[in-house]
Request: fold
Amino acid sequence: MPDIEGIKVLNLSSKKRAKELSEKYNVPLINSESAETYISIDDQPILHYGKNKLENSFIEGKFSTRISQYQGESLLKKAIGWQSTAQKHILDTTGGLGHDAFILALLGQKITVLEKNTGLCVLIEEALNNLPNLPYFNDARNNISVVNNDSRAFLSSAENFDVIYVDPMFNSKKKLKRTKQMEFLDNYLEEHDDPSVEFYESSFKRLVIKKELRAAPSIKDCSAISFKGSSVRYDVYLKGEK
Ligand SMILES: C[S@@+](CC[C@H](N)C(=O)[O-])C[C@H]1O[C@@H](n2cnc3c(N)ncnc32)[C@H](O)[C@@H]1O
Reply:
C-alpha cells in the first residue's frame, strides 16, 4: 500500500501544525519537489498521489450535506443500536476519511478510529482540526480519537467496545455512483483489505458491517439483522450484547 513520504508545509502559519503531525505520525517534514505521495499542509490539507489530489473537509463539499442532516441517519442509528440516553464506545476498524466516524461522533458516540494508512489519518486529523469553533463540533471532535494502526491489533480487545464497525472498500465492478474521493481511494489504496471475518471470530458484543445494498454478505450467519437503505445496507451481528 502506498503511503506518504512526508508532510510538505506551504506557508509559515501551518508550520507548527505540520510539525505536530510529523511527530505524532513519525513522518518527515519535506520540501522535495520529487515526492510522489505526500500531504501538503495549507489552509486545506491535500493528499497528493502522483497527479491525483484528495481533500477531506467536514464542512465543505458533498460530505457537508450529510453532516447538516446527521440527525436523520436512521439506518446508521439502528445499526449501532443508538440510544439517546447512553453513549456507546465504537471501534471503527476501517477509518478511511473518517466520515462515518464523524457522523457517529455527532450522534454523541465515542469513537476510536483505526486507519492503517498514515496519509488518511492525517487527513482525518486535519478535517477535525479545521472545524469551526462551535459547541456541537467541539463535542464531536472530543469524542474521536484517531489511531494509525491495522485494526487487527485490536481483535483481542473487541469485547471492550459496545460496537465494532467495519466499512470495507466496495469491490464492485459495477459503475457505482462513486464520488471523486472514492475513486481516489480505490486507486491509492490498491489492495482492498477487509478485517470483517477476523472481527466476526472475535469476542465482540455487536458487529456492524456496511455493504453495498445488493452485495453478498461478508459472513454467512442467518441470525444477522440487516438494515437496508437505497444504496447501502448494514449487516448487524450480536454476540455479547446484553
Ligand atoms: C471504504 S474506506 C472506509 C470509509 C469510512 N467508513 C468513511 O466513512 O470515511 C476503507 C478504509 O479502511 C482502511 N482499512 C482496511 N483494512 C484495514 C485494517 N485492517 N486496519 C485499518 N484500516 C483498514 C483502508 O485503508 C481504507 O481507508
